[in-house]
Amino acid sequence: MRKIKKLKTITAFHQTRGLTPPEHPLISIVNYTDIQMQPEYFDCKWTFDFYLIALKKNIGGKVMYGQQSYDFDEGVMFFIAPGQVFGIEQITGTPANKSGWMLLIHPDFLWGTPLAGGIKKYEYFSYAIHEALFVSKKEEDTLMDIISNIEREYHANIDKFSQGIIISQIETLLNYSDRFYNRQFITRKRAGHQMLEQLESLFSAYFGEDIAGKKGLPRVQYFAERLNLSPKYLSSMLKTLTGQTAQQFIHEQLIELAKEKLSVTSLSVGEIAYMLGFEHSQSFNKLFKSKTSFSPLEFRKSFDQQN
């Protein structure tokens, strides 16, 4: 198992990648062609105390995240938040046409601005590397324009307006990335619907033997792991396909199953609650009423009256 190396500063990143020192200790733009890939770069995994946003082509290796790897021979964009662990697996030969850029942002640079907390709303920082963003040439040009704006300000004389201007450009970059991810979910609807079918099958299997009471309530993490997705990516994809987050989807499925049990069995509400994985029937009652406007007993009574 490869050891994990931690870089606390952007200056340290520059040093380990054979780059000249950054002009600002809390933010830097790196031309990927300037990076010198040292052997030790591949011998371990890495974690940073800063954000890294990158668009790369022909990386000359595979990026590893968890148990997954992704070959960056095509132009893709990915986002690494402080504390994420990743690594690079070297492949034979170094591509002559590698290209791209990296934007490094220390959280302290965002301090005192709305983006300090707002950056957490961009869920793709929690996606796995194999859930990278594929951008078209037109989208890539749009992102490059923003990076160029940041770079011009970065190299200009720093004044009282500099941080605000750069922050606004970073936010624009993140918003465009959000839009492009949404486009990716839409254009890959076929794969998304296949995933939805798999998710429904997994949900049915979870309750297949009526032993959910022993398993507890189904969790997003449980389904994400079996679909080989990160929880955030699963939730974002479901939001595009169904208008529901992963948690909302699970709740919806639970309610539909509860309705079935209430209408075609004589099981008590407590027995149904246990069967669905609820520790307390009061929690089941509360969720059911919030979704249907009826208590479980009221729903059963109304169903009986209809029949």
Automatic annotation (TrEMBL):
It comes from the Bacteria. Residues 201-302 form the HTH araC/xylS-type domain. One of its GO terms (molecular function) is sequence-specific DNA binding. Pfam families: HTH_18. InterPro entries: Homeodomain-like_sf, HTH_AraC. Keywords: DNA-binding, Transcription, Transcription regulation. This is Helix-turn-helix domain-containing protein.
